[in-house]
């Protein structure tokens, strides 16, 4: 069973009443220590290190190489704040980074671009969907990423590609790095789609028999999950559309085709979810229709049986009466010929009427 | 139970037939005295006073400090009129300020901007939603706000922030003050959403049993409330969208990111309401489907019992007839073997047919 | 009961086959005499007269004062034609003026603007809605209005305002006069909305009992009426939107805010109708759901009674059989202990099964 | 009964695999001879003749008078081809002219405009709707029209107007002629709408009784027809919208107001169809609801009768048993007082329960 | 039965985690050898050959004649890669060519245009729909097409037209060739539409009797197929719309009218599918309504029979009781007159009540 934790899709209101720009961590992992890793690379080489403190990152600030600062865990507000001040981020951005439950969006500022989106990870072990908020701040020579520190790291494959130096990632700028990370996140949506697809196919098999009382709630549940997924993908698509059409000089011409490709992927995700929704809605309709067809049939059987036997019962009842003067009772062939003949005639007449009305 | 007072969402028609610009108070608190407070502040200091008369406010008219004139209660038309004339407000604005039931909107005039919106306040004590109309008129160095004088004051927190002098509110202009007030109003919508969310979760638990006849009306009622909430939030979102995109010189560049943030919040509110609606609609569908599944089951039981026992009843009736010549009645094993054998055969036959048709 | 005369919403086809520009009166009051009134005014004075012939109006043609020519009744085509020629109106406009059933629209010509809209008047006496077509032709110094001559005159209040000389109407141009007349028409929609609102509230009370067979048709009828109202308001809103955004020099800057206000009113009307529709649809759904819940209950009672008593009836039937050899019949306690014990056991067993399946 | 020939709404695929521009006649009247009529007119005079061959038309090619060449029947491809070459029409246009089943559209070429639309004609005799494809090619001084040669000719009235010389048709150019022809076609849609309207009103009467089994299929059939009509009108509206907004120099300023008027007519047609659809959908809903209300009632009667008499039957069965020891049978007042008293008590108890549950 | 292989509509996720631009073949025909054919032609002549290796194609690279390189089978990645490098295609294009399951799209690059779409082929033998991905890369003097190597080749007819030298294909550029190929693909959709149309007509016949239990699932199945077809046609239409409006200099003015024609075809396909969907939805509604009408009827018969005979059975049961003192049993005319009279009276009374309630 695939499970969605609804509460992760919507922001908490515990900040109500605070002035804008106030940083309040609203995730549910307040205890974990924050881990900062810095990867500095260009076409020729790569330096990778785990920063002990935020000050460690500042060393790379003035270099012309590409610097990727990854912050794992946003529960320690002071760290985010220090980084924010060093890189002159707007207070509202710092607020959004730690305020879990943001709607995916892209915001362009004078010297940097802020991107926030949701990483969905499917845990096949327990069918759980994990939602993790990822923030990216893109500068000309630097990319800072913030993620909640959950199990699994979808960025690892990108890190490997940088280390190996193969492909074009080391040759291109930070904008391509940002693209590569978002692409890795979007790719994970396809895995969830596949799991949903399998579940739907399984339900399709079940529906043909329609005997299981649980099919209906399961279908409703699946439709509900697809609604949630859709609600979470639409703003993603929108945000990547904004990203693709953005004229920010931070995204260079060479990266543009990749952004277009990324946008195509999100359209495919949306398309697939819409198809799934239509399929599940169709299955719900079919299931309900078949329930009512079955009901119809059951009712017909009841009606046929009752319509035949209730009158017959009356006839038998008549001849079971105890009137003193019922001359037919005394007739020799009354029972074998009269009674049974009447019964057979009644049954044949009924069957004829039913048949004419196309009841069976 | 959360209660909405419908009549507050729509304007009264008691003004029909009057010339445009005629000021008629249409709220339901005509008696309360009007209270005017003036806060004049800049980065260095703050003056706060309760104005005895409208003339008290004019003292601040020519200063370059920021002046916030807050009018609590719009039932005294003469006060609104005097202020309006002093600040040269358009007659249509004065009419809208006192005409409760306005659709949230923003109107730009040559030297000021008029904003009207609805403040929704949730009273957890009695589950009542209070709707209060708030008007803001923004000048370069002055902000005038008009609110109906109801219980609770959502502006108090903003006042505190001005008094304390912390944060950026004292450093920025009246446009930021207007933003801060609207933000305080929008934040209160999240509290109502949370109350609705809890109610829906509670109903979700109830629905699994579907035995309560009250579940259906409750679901319909909740859907109805969400419709109302939606109707009240859509124009708000629209208005804040207009505000964000507005090119009025009254809103300075430094305030713009905050307006964008505000707009994001209203989108999140709309998104959440839409999700709630979808969830409740899904629950309604599920509830109805489960009712009809249950009905189906009940009908099947009736049919099985009736289909088995009505023919059996006929058989018993036959042997209860009083014909003189019914030779089988006299046979020694007629009752224990013949009759009961026939009964058992009939039952087994029926069960076989039912089983083959997958009735149970 | 509020009644709509459908035929008034759509144009008659009796003109099919005639060349465009042919004037055919398609209303249903061909006999009434046409009445022309002329009001000529400026800030300083007012001249009011009833014109004997169309020529009487031409006197005001060259003046710089504002002239309002109101034609009551459009059944006399020659009058409309003469006026049209004198003021050089396009033949298509003349055709539309007399061709009742026009869709509200605004058309800009070189030297004038043509506006046509529908006036809805609610007659509380018989619940009838009267639909009247009103045409306005606005010149720089002159406004010509054409209305069908029905009972009641919504323009009278505007006339009073001109006569009294209070307010701004005498100070402003003919564009403001046109606005004032349209505003008077739009105001009347709110009265109809209020009548509909009361009707809906009344139905809301009825629905809670759901015993009245008439509730369903009534709800359908109300939804139908709201559809009609909506169909009639949407083009009005559209037309006033066009009017507001129009860049025609005939509408001066001072009148613009009033047009914006007028547009806000039509949006509120549309909003309210949409809300009403949603409420009524929700009531229909609820009513149907409650019907099927009731049905469910009735069926359960039938099933419980039938399922208990049909088998019992069979048992009684068995012991009413006339077999010669039914030893149990002779047993001393067969009836009081055996039979009634069996009956009680059967009933208890059934009740246990029903209870376990949560049937009651 | 109004009948639509569906196959006429969609193009045949018999052309699949042929190169574009191949002319294949796909109508169903391949045998009829083609008739070409030429009307050449200006303000002063008119020449009308039936062309023996396509070459006859070419005589008018260089004149400055307006020439209208009407081709009745498009089954003879060679004729269309010759005309096409003489007037230098694009091969794709020639293909579309003979390929019945085109979607209404307007295509602008360098020196001419191509218009194709569907003429719907209602035959009141047999209720049949005839669909005929009409193509218009407009040159500065010439209009060529192609129509399938079916019964009835909607262009005759326009021809009469040219012959009579009244009105403005002789004074204006070929663009006005094209407008007049399209207007004649659009006018015929109103006649079909009126026939549909009468049918719907008739069904509205039927629905109130809801006893006729045919009402439901009839309503579905009507909704289906309205869907077809809508599908056929939408592209027409779109095409006339394109025509109205077109900046082609072929349409002169004097003709523009007429095109706008034409567009208004198509909007009214679309509006009316949408209203009809809503009315019919509402009737379907109401009919279904009333069916289920009736079902509910029938079920209640069944349940009341069965619930009362099945237990009574059991009681009678009990006293019909043949146990040797049933002391109550011997009691003097057992039958008149005991039995009938029990029966009356049972009935009264049942009725009380039913009444309390508001079953009747 | 028309069968759609769903998996072909959506891309496989087996590429998740790979860097963008990685070429992975995701079709299901990995073994077939790839076949490359080259056709080089201009107005005067044609050279046709099967290329042994990719290098064979390069010979035509510098010519000014039109070159069409067709690659049958995209499973051999090295071939696609070599061609891609020779013609300097963007890595993302190469990835899309071999990654089966692309959404139809058009991408413009500096010196070429990339088009990908889906060819649907209907196999009437087994009712199977085959989906094949086709990629086109258009250069000024060269067109490269890639198709999966499936049975049947829709391009053969275009090849024939080039060979024969008839029509305009040899006279026009590669843009026309690209158009001709896409047109051939789009034409095949009409064949599928016709097959669907016949199926729907067949179902329309079935529905009138509504006795077949399979009708409902069949209708649902057809609606589902139409949804799939729609999902596959919408992006095609969108892509051809982009193609038509594209301002790429690669598409010359002479080809433009053909692109417009192509776009009209896709609109007709979409229109027809929408009509089919509406028809099938209407049939589903009608079928369900008729099921419930039938159910209603069946219930009425049951109710009439039961309501008449259950009371009669009770009466017969009463006179079958064995009370010692039932004086009526001894009356001479009790049975023939009393009993049967009572029965007849009861039946007539019931029938009267039923008739008054319009039950039959």
The number of distinct β-strands of chain A equals: 7
What is the element string of chain A, with H for helices and E for strands? EEHEHHEEEEHHHHH
Largest interface, counted by CB within 8 Å of the partner chain's CB: A-B, 59 and 59 residues
Strand order of the largest sheet of chain A: 2-1-3-7-6-5-4
Characterize the structure shown.
The structure is a homopentamer of 360-residue chains. With 360 residues, chain A is of the alpha+beta class. Chain A folds into 2 domains: 284 residues, CorA soluble domain-like (Beta Polymerase, domain 2, 2-Layer Sandwich); 58 residues, Methane Monooxygenase Hydroxylase, Chain G, domain 1. Chain A is built from 8 helices and 7 strands. In chain A, strands 2-1-3-7-6-5-4 form a 7-stranded mixed sheet, with helices on both faces. In chain A, a hairpin with a 4-residue loop joins strand 4 and strand 5. In chain A, helix 5 runs parallel beside helix 7, helix 6 packs antiparallel against helix 7 and helix 7 runs antiparallel to helix 8. Chain A is rod-shaped, with a radius of gyration of 35 Å. Chains in contact: A-B, A-E, B-C, C-D, D-E. At the C-D interface, helix 6, helix 7 and helix 8 of C face helix 5 and helix 7 of D.
Give a concise summary.
With 360 residues, chain A is α+β, with helices and mostly antiparallel strands. In chain A, 51% of the residues lie in helices and 15% in strands. The first copy, chain A, has helices at residues 55-58, 77-86, 91-98, 156-164, 174-207, 215-245, 256-319, 334-356, and strands at 35-41, 46-51, 66-72, 105-108, 113-123, 128-139, 142-147.
